[in-house]
Amino acid sequence: MEKIVINNGAINSQILVGEDWKSIFKLTPQENVIIITDENVFNIYGKYFPAYPVVILRPGEKSKDLRIVGRVAMQMLKAGIDRTGFVLGVGGGMVCDVAGFAASIYMRGIRCGYVSTSLLSQVDASIGGKTGVNLGNTKNILGTFSQPEIVICDPSMLRSLPDEEYFSGLAELIKTAMIGNEKLVELIENNHEAILRREIGFLTKVISMSVRFKASVVSQDEKESGLRRILNFGHTYGHAIEMATGFSHGFAVASGMELAADFSFEKGYLSESDRGRIINLLKSFNLLREYKISPARMHSLIFRDKKRSGDEISFVFLRTAGVALVEKVSGRELSDFYKKRVSV
Ligand SMILES: NC(=O)c1ccc[n+]([C@@H]2O[C@H](COP(=O)([O-])OP(=O)(O)OC[C@H]3O[C@@H](n4cnc5c(N)ncnc54)[C@H](O)[C@@H]3O)[C@@H](O)[C@H]2O)c1
Q: What is the pTM of this model?
C-alpha cells in the first residue's frame, strides 16, 4: 500500500493506493455518514456497505446535473446529516464529482472522502479536489475546489470495470506519464501484458506513480493558476473530440494527445522519434479511434473551451516523453493547425 498526501493548508488529503477498499469504513466516522454511489457499483459492491443511508445514482454523465445534486442534498437532509456529517462517494469520476460537489455546498461544506472505483478516477478524477457538474452540454462548468479527506484507490476493483472504461482510464494514465514521468512511460511500454491482465501489483505501482505526480502538481497549484495546467495535455482538442463524437473521455483525450504531439513536433519542441514513441504507445492499446470533424466544427468547439481566456488558450506541448511545457496560443492557431493536418 502507498500513502500519498496532498497538503493544501486547511486540509490534508490522504490517498491510499493498493489498500483494501473496505477499510474506508474503519477510517471514516462511524455515524452521520451518507454513501453516494451509482447502480453499477452498488450492484457489485453494495453488499459490503455498512448500514449507512445510501444514495444510488443512475450511471453516466447525465447524473452530473444540478437537479441531481439537489436531490442528493435532499436525501442528506432527510437522513439527518448535519454539519459534522461525512459524505462518502463510492464510484468512478461521476460519483466523486457529484458527491464532492454536494458535500462542498451542503451546509456550506461538510467532510467527504471517496472510494475511487474506476481507473480514470483513481489516476485523475478523485485526486486534486476539483468537483463539478455539467450545465446543458457544457462539461464541469459548475463546481468547487474541495479536497476529500481520504481517497482509497483499490486496483482490485478495476477487475469488474468494463473494457471501455478501463482503457479510457489507461489513456489518462498515459497522459500523466507523458507530462511528468519518463520512467512511468517506460513501465507502461514494457508491461503491456500486465496492463491487459489488470495485474494488481503492477497497477498499484503505476497508479501510485500517477497519483504522486498529480498530488505534487496540485500541492503547488491547487486552483489551476499555473503549473496545474499541464494536466490538460491532450484535453484542448480532446474535449472538442469528445463533444463532437461522444467517445469515452479517455479515448477522446488519446486523440487529443496525438494532435498535441503532432503540434509539438510542428512547433519544433518534440523530436520525430519522440512523436513516434507517443503515438505508438497509444496505438499499442488501440486508443486511437477514427473520427471525422470538420475544421469549422473543431474551431467552434475549441472556442467553447472553458480554459480559454479571450482568444488565448494555454496549450500543453511536449518536449519529450515525460516533459511538458505550457504556452499560450490563439484559438485561430489551433484551428489552423487542425485544418492543415486534416487536409494532408
Ligand atoms: N474532478 C476532476 O478532477 C475530474 C478529472 C477527470 C475526470 N473527471 C470526471 O470524471 C468522469 C469520468 O470518470 P469515469 O470514467 O470514472 O466515469 P464514471 O464514473 O461514469 O464511470 C464509468 C462507468 O464505469 C462504471 N464503474 C465504475 N467503477 C466500476 C467498477 N469498479 N466496476 C464496474 N463498473 C464500474 C460506472 O458505473 C460507469 O458506468 C467525468 O464526468 C469527468 O468529467 C473529473
A: 0.95
